[in-house]
Amino acid sequence: MGRGEKAADAEDGEEGGMGGPLDASRSDYRLTESGEKNVISRAEAGEDSDVDDWADTFGDPTREESRAVQEFEQAQARLQDPKNDEKKRRWLRLRHKVQFTLAVANLVVLALGVFHKQWLMPYYYSAKAPILIFLRWYFYTKDHHQWFLLDFCYFCNLALLIYLWAFPDNPYLFTMVFAASHGPLAWAVVAFRNSLVFHSLDKTTSAFIHISPPLVCYSLRWYTNTANEGWYKNFEVCISDDCRDSEPSPCVEEHCRLPYDDLTSWLWAWAIPLGFFVGHSLLYFFIVQGLCHAKLKKDKRYLTSFRFLTADKNSLVFKLVNCCGHKGRVPMYGFFNAIFAMLTIGPAIIYMNYQWANILFLCLIVSVCTWNGANFYVEVFARKYAGWEAAKRSGSVSSSAAASVNPRTTSVSSGNSGNIVQNPAHEE
Hints:
By secondary structure, this protein is an all-alpha fold. The protein is built from 18 helices and two strands. The chain is globular. It starts with 7 loop residues before the first strand and ends in a 24-residue tail after the last helix.
């Protein structure tokens, strides 16, 4: 899906989730002496380990706090550089303030759309998606992270756009998109530790990519008639025979139920969404591990979901995919991704049938994203602020230098996606 939430590049104040569940970073990684020695020793031993080489060379991207501290220290150095004049610092602060304001305004519009003007949701989503995804592609390409755009989350967003603008009267396509968006896509917020950090375009983009599709599907599923008021064609969201035979059509939302003993219900609410996920995984591995494997292996600057999620040798993901040894990592990675999708798509039929269950699930996902954002501001951002205030009082740094990185005026974002650490990213 998307890459993990990544730390911001201090110069522009951005950071930039798994193709399966799951948001690495635009930050500059520094080679360590021990890392170089480890790579050399494996080369001498003749061991071919793409994941190990990348992890040892670039460090562990899953330790959010340590990387955030490193990012912040790099920001301090850049902001104290005489070349970075006051005009540049003012522009950076202004951009963070604008991003923060727009992110809060976005929440207001989303609340209005979800709770009152459901017809607004398809328009608002369709307007934001191309802009944010284009910006992500632009920044990720500069940082050699463009391979994250092959992840499942972007394909799921594309499927929703196709439903909205090409086949809004196809209830079968809606059911597949609903299940996929409430399955691997939504759970990527948890897996990638997406965070709601208002001043970070990358983190808010990751949150948008993983949370907006479920919110749009919720609005269409439970407020179909209201959503139809502003669309060019009536939305059809229910594949139940009783609903499709009802008059007038579409049927009243609360009367739409997918029978648990009906094969068609499970086919479109579970099997086909799972097939969509598995089909994407096969395409992803054909491109990343087949067509472009030599290029990716040669240039370790390129970051993919597989490299990102398996870089930490102490993580559960690495232990799972490494259970059959080095040669079995890629197949096991795909296998556990499929298991993840199978488990997360399963409850979608319940969310489709009961609004209270749908609301509780979305509240859980949004709460996790908000909690991760609160952790960043309280545990990382506030700690660095307190440290610089103490240094300023003690005179260990000049007043001008302290002011240049004062968190009240300059925001430096750190890793996610979501994210693990976010980008990708979530932006992840």
